Structures are given as structure tokens and as C-alpha cells.
Amino acid sequence: MTTVQSPPSAPPTGLRPRVVARTGLYVVLAANAVAVAVFFVQAGFAGSNALIVLGRLAGLYGALLMAFQLLLVARLPWLDRRIGMDRLTSWHRRVGFGLLWTLVAHAVFITLGYAQFSSLGPVDEFVELATTIEGVLRAIVALVLIMLVGAVSARFARRRLAYETWHFIHLYTYLAVLLAFTHQVTVGTTFTTSPAATAYWWTLWGVALGSVFVGRLALPLWRNLRHQLRVSAVVPESDNVVSIYMTGRDLDRLPARAGQFFLWRFLTRDRWWQANPFSLSAAPDGRSLRLTAKTAGDGTAALRHIPVGTRVFAEGPYGAFTTLHRTRPDTLLIAGGVGITPIRALLEELHGHTVLIYRVASDRDAVLYGELLELASAKGAELHLVTGPATPDKLAPEAVAHLVPDVCDRDVFVCGPPGMTSAVLRNLRELGVPKQQIHFERFSLAG
Fold first, then answer.
1. Of the ranges 104-113, 169-178, 256-265, 279-288, which one carries the lowest mean pLDDT score?
2. Residue 21 belongs to some domain of the structure
3. Cα(224)–Cα(375) distance, rounded to whole angstroms?
4. What is the dihedral of CA 417, 421, 427, 430, to 10 degrees?
């Protein structure tokens, strides 16, 4: 469907928010890496052989990576809006494996280094260090916990574990952080030999742990106490899709944008402990919030039975899938299945000429299609409903170019099942759409 388009609006100018945030993180990490090296050299190497020196340096950089990991998953709004939880979580995972091998190197080099000074073998020296030096046993427990978390975070294990099980095991990381920090305070040469180094490490850990406290505990608690969300309506959209409307206090002061999502907890007797990520399916209007979910198991199937008036604890808003990252006046939105929910919210907020391609298996799978028709008509947008089986690819490069000849001159927002999203991203690259104009978020990584 095509109607008269609305006047185009100018895209944001200046440096892209994601570039600014990503560069800032790199600069912070590099500056701290230099600081660690400086304090390490200032502490000196008296009484150490090469293995002990390497082990100490590996331990210090392991502590730095551990603090950086905490920052990545602190869910600080400034970082999350610019980079996105999915990318931050992915970086956290990669840094985590680097941390694991750094700490293993620390333990191995320290053990072998001290073994050179004694008549003991490596295993006996390891036991000797653990039983005679304060703080070493705590460090060993921390390393074991990090190895356990690393094992369950490997792809082959993560795919076989329920999210709740994986998340519960992952919480042991905080215990590992505490044990590792007390080990560093107790026996860390660099920590204890210089007042400046001591102040640096206390500040580093204070910022890292403080960020987690603020982003993951204090801010969600404060927002929920302030806004007092409750379910105001539960509306079935189809046999397997339901929309939930929520109202609360001062929602005009909740910094949510179209395209973002929350981790929702509906505080009923059987659901209060479950947090599920659902995108807003309507642009926030300061009066209410709406999510739309498709049945994907017993948990989501029970959503249509939530009583009106149920209190809601919502963590968020999260995500960088917003108009903050626009670079062009005009936009192409591509949605697949229930991935239409954040796309529908974006359509409501966008200015300039917009084309929406909605990919579904059949007409009856087109969730919220009536609303899309009304929105497209009101905003002068083009709406294309593309139906049919997954193969052949109906969003192949030539198909997209036929529907949107000026695709390379538009921002493109993509949301859908992982397979479809990956295929569309490949097709857009083949069409020559610049990378900075392609926006997507892998919501399966939320939480």
C-alpha cells in the first residue's frame, strides 16, 4: 500500500552515538592497561624470576579484565542506548574467555616460578602456596568458579541449558570477583607497595562494582517505585499472540523510546521470579506501555491469563534499536514474524518517508496488521506484506531492490527470527547498503 509521504526530516548530524560510546570504552580500557603497566613497573621485580613476573602481570591484567567485564554488563543507560545490550553482552562474553585464560596463566606462571625457588614439584608447590599464603586459597576458589561459568557459557553448553539455570550459575561470578579482590588486597605486590597504586585499584573496583549496583539494582528499584506499573488490559491478537497494556505514574518521565525492550516480571504467585524480554509494540506516549508476545512455551502462553491489576516489575528500557542511530532522512523497516513489535513502534515514531516490508509465512501470521495499515496511511508510508515459505528467499537482494530501489539511500532497521535477520543482513551488504545505515539487535541475548 502506498500513500502520500510526509515531509522528510533531517537526520542526526555529528559523530554517531555508537562510535562515540565504543571509542570511549576502548580509550578507557587502553588507559587503564597503561596505568596497570606503570604501577607494575614501579613496584619492581626484586626477588622474582621471569615466570613470577609474568604471573604477576597476568594476574593484574586479569583483575583489570574482570572489572571491565562488570562495566559491560552493568546496564548503564548511557552505554546501553548507544551500543545495545546484545553487543555489550557479546563483548562481555569474549572478554570473559580472555579473562579465564589470563587467570589460568597467572596461576600456572606463579606456581612454576615459585617451584624454581624450592625443591618442590609444580603440584606440591601449588598445594604449598594454597595452604600457607593468606588469600591464595580464595583465589583458587575464584578461578574454579570462573572456569565453571566459562564452561556453561560455551556455545555447546549454553544452547542446552535453560536460561534460568545458566543465569543462576552465572551469578557465581560475583562471588568470584569478591574472592579475587580480597586475594589482590592481601598479597598483591602492586596493590600494597604504592599508595597511588592502592588508590587506583580501590577506585577501579569501586567504579566497576558501583556501576553494577546502580545499573542492575538501584536504578530498576527506583524506577519501579516511582512508576508503579500495573496491567490495565490483556488483549488477544490471535490464537498465539497477546498484547498486554500497562499504566503507571509519571510515565512521561520514563526514558523509553520506540524500538526498546524491558525485562518484564509479572508479580503473580507463579510468575514473579521469571523475567522475560519483550519489546514495546507501541511508541511510549507518557500514559501507557504495551508489549505484544507470541506463545513460545508455557511461560508466554500464560501471559493471556494474567489478571488485570497485576503489579509489574520492569527492568529497562534497554536497547539501541532506536531512531537515535539514524543517519538518513528516509527509512526502510524490515520485520519478520513477531519481530514486527519493535518495528511497529518505530513506524509510529519515525518521520520522513518510510517503507515497511513485513515477512510472514501466511496472511494470518501478520500480527498487528490492521494497526500497520492505519499507521502507514496516516504517515504516508509504503507497506509491503510478503508471504510464503522460507525458501526461496523472498527478501533476496533483487527482491528488496525491486520493492525499494533507493535502499542504499535509507537507514534500514531489521528485526525478525535469527535466521531471517542474518539472511537479510547478508542481502543488504550485497546490495551495497553502508554498514552505518544498517541497524539490528539480537534480542535473544537480552538478560
1. 169-178
2. no
3. 31
4. -160
Confidence of residue 46 (pLDDT cuts 50, 70, 90): confident
Residues 97 and 170 placed together within one structural domain of the fold: yes
Q: Looking at residue 273, what is its pLDDT?
A: 80
The separation between CA 255 and the C-alpha centre of its own chain, rounded to angstroms, equals 18
Q: Which helix (H) or strand (E) holds 266?
A: strand 261-266
- Boundaries of domain holding 89: 44-224
CATH number of the domain residue 400 falls in: 3.40.50.80
**15 located within any domain:** no
Q: Work out the number of other CB atoms within 10 angstroms of the CB of residue 357.
A: 24
Q: How far is it between the farthest Cα atoms of the chain?
A: 86
Which pLDDT does position 238 carry in this prediction?
A: 87
Tell me, yes or no, whether 238 and 203 share the same domain: no
End-to-end CA separation in angstroms for the chain: 37
User: Among the three residues 318, 334, 366, which one is the final residue of a domain in this structure?
Assistant: 318
**235 and 306 inside one domain:** yes
Asked whether residue 19 is domain-assigned, the answer is no
Q: How many domains does the chain have?
A: 3
Residues 343 and 399 in one domain: yes
- Helix (H) / strand (E) element for 154: namely none
Burial label for 134, CB within 10 Å (0-12, 13-18, 19+), is exposed
- The count of other CB atoms within 10 Å of the CB of residue 160 is 10
Question: Is the domain of 308 the same as that of 394?
Answer: no
Chain Cα centroid distance, residue 45: 40
Q: Cα(302)–Cα(406) distance, rounded to whole angstroms?
A: 43
The model carries a pTM of 0.87
181, with CB counted inside 10 A (0-12, 13-18, 19+), is buried
167 Cα distance to chain centroid: 14
53 and 170 both lie in a single domain: yes
* Half-sphere CA count of 65, side-chain side, radius 13 A: 20
Among 182, 184, 180, 189, CA closest to 47: 189
- Decide which of 283 and 161 is more confident: 283
